[in-house]
Amino acid sequence: MMKAQHGPGGGGGGHGRRAPFMTSYALTLAFITFVSLLYFKDFSSTLHQPFLHHPPQRSHRPNVRRPRPLQLPHVATAGGATVEIVEKAASRAPERRRRLPFAVGPAAAGCDISVGEWVYDEAARPLYREEECPYIQPQLTCKEHGRPDTAYRHWRWQPRGCDLPSFNATLMLEMLRGKRMLFVGDSLNRGQYVSLVCLLHRAIPESSKSMETFDSLTVFRAKDYNATIEFYWAPFLAESNSDDAVVHRVADRIVRGTAIEKHAKFWKGADVVVFNTYLWWMTGQKMKILQGSFEDKSKDIIEMETEDAYGMVLNAVVKWVENNMNPRNSRAFFVTMSPTHTRSKDWGDDSDGNCYNQTTPIKDLSYWGPGTSKGLMRVIGEVFSTSKVPVGVVNITQLSEYRKDAHTQIYKKQWNPLTPEQIASPKSYADCTHWCLPGLQDTWNELLYTKLFFP
Question: Under a CB-based contact definition with an 8 Å cutoff, are residues 156 and 119 in contact?
C-alpha cells in the first residue's frame, strides 16, 4: 500500500499535487493583506482628523441634548390639583458634571430639602435673638412691637429622610472671602437678606462690619474678609414704575418689558446672586407692559397675561446670567414664591380671620393656599430649565405655606396712623405677607446655604 506523502521532504509526485493549493493560498493571503492595508490607511487618516487631534476647549463642546430637569415631587394642593417645579434648573451635561463653585460637599443622596415638616425645638431655635441684630428693619421686629407669643421663633424645618447641614457662619464668611454676594428683588427678598446678615454678623468683630444704603443698593461689609453682602431693590427685576426704593407704593403698576439694564449694571461682578420676584405681580389683572421708555411723552402700553409677562422677564434674567456670570466661579439662585395667609377659611378655620393671632403652623402637609399662583410656579420651572448655566431654584413655597403663624401680623412699625376702625379690629390691618425675624426666613437661608455649599 502506498502512503500519502504529506511532509515537506516528499517525492516529486506529492509536490506536483500541492502546487494548485499553494497558489490559491498565496492569492488569498495577498488579498487579505491588501484589504488590511487599505483599512489601516483609512483608519489612520481618521485618527488625524482635526476635531480629534486638536480637541476643543470644554466651554465650546456642542450640546447634543439637554438633560431632563430634576423635578420636585408633585405638591398636592387643598383642591387636589398638583404643581411641579424644577428643584435645580437644568443645565448642559458638561456643566452638571463640573463641581459647582463654593461647593464643599455633596448633597445628601435622595434628599429633597424642601419636603418635610416643622418641628418645635426650643433648644436649637432661634438661631439669633431679635435684640442682638441691629440690622432688622422695624417692619420685622415683632417682639419689639409687642408680639406676646414666642413659639414662632422656635420651629425648625426637618426635611424628610435627611437633615439640613448646620449653619456655620465662619465657614460661609471664609467661602465669601474677597467675594460679593447680592440679593435682588422685593421686600421679601430684603427680609431674607437681613436674615442672612443677622446669621453672620455675630462672627464678625464690631469694628469690622458696617451697613450702608445707596438709593436702591444696601451694602453690608465684612471688612476682615473683604466681603460684601448686598441687597438691590428691583421688585419686578425689570425696569418699572415701582423702582424707587422708598416711594414705590404704586397701584397702577407698569413694567418696561425686558429692559433690565438699568438694574443689571449694579449686578455685574457679583459672585453669588439671589433673585426673587413674585408679590408685585399679583394684581389680579393683566400686567401693563411699556413698549418704549418711561421718558417718552406718549406711552405705548400693552396688556399681557401675568404668566406671559412673568416668563418674559425671567427669560431676560436668564439671558443676563448666561452672558454675565461665569459658571466656573460664580453662582445664581432664584427663590420661589412667598405665600400669604389672608383668609383663615382656607386652612379650615371658620372664624373669618386671617394670620392675626395665629400661633401654630398648618398641620395638613398637602395645604396649598389660594394666594400662591400655581401658574407662576410652573413658569419658574419652565424658564430656569432652559438656562445654559446652572441656576439653583430654592423652593421655599410649600414649607412657608404651613407657617400661618410666622407673619408680622400687627406687630410692626405702622407707616400710616391707624384709624379708629382699624384699632377696633386688629385683623383688618394685620400684615399677612411679611415675616417676623428671627423666624421663617432664617430657614430660607438654611436652604440657600445648603444649595450653595452642598449642591
Answer: yes
* Residues 290 and 256: beta-carbon distance below 8 Å: yes
Task: Give strand ranges (E) for 196-282.
Answer: 209-214, 217-222, 227-233, 254-255, 272-275
Of all residues in the chain, what percent are helix, strand and coil, respectively (each to 5)?
Answer: 35, 15, 50
Distances (CA, A) of 381 to 135, 186, 296: 33, 20, 35
The answer on pLDDT for 46 being more than 50 is no
- Known active-site residue 407: no
Q: Looking at the whole model, is its pTM more than 0.85? A: no
Q: How many residues does the chain have?
A: 455
Query: What would the pLDDT profile of 51-82 be if each residue is shown by its tens digit?
Result: 233 333 333 333 323 333 334 334 443 333 33
Marked catalytic residue, from 91, 187, 195, 240? 187
Alpha helices in 293-338 (DSSP H): 306-324
All cell numbers assigned to 170? 465662619
Cβ(184)–Cβ(325) below 8 Å: no
Residue 440 cell numbers, joined:
421663617
In the annotation, is 400 catalytic? Answer: no
Question: From edge to edge, which strands make up the β-sheet containing 331-335?
Answer: 70-71, 86-88, 391-394, 331-335, 272-275, 180-185, 227-233, 217-222, 209-214
Is 442 noted as a catalytic residue in this protein? no
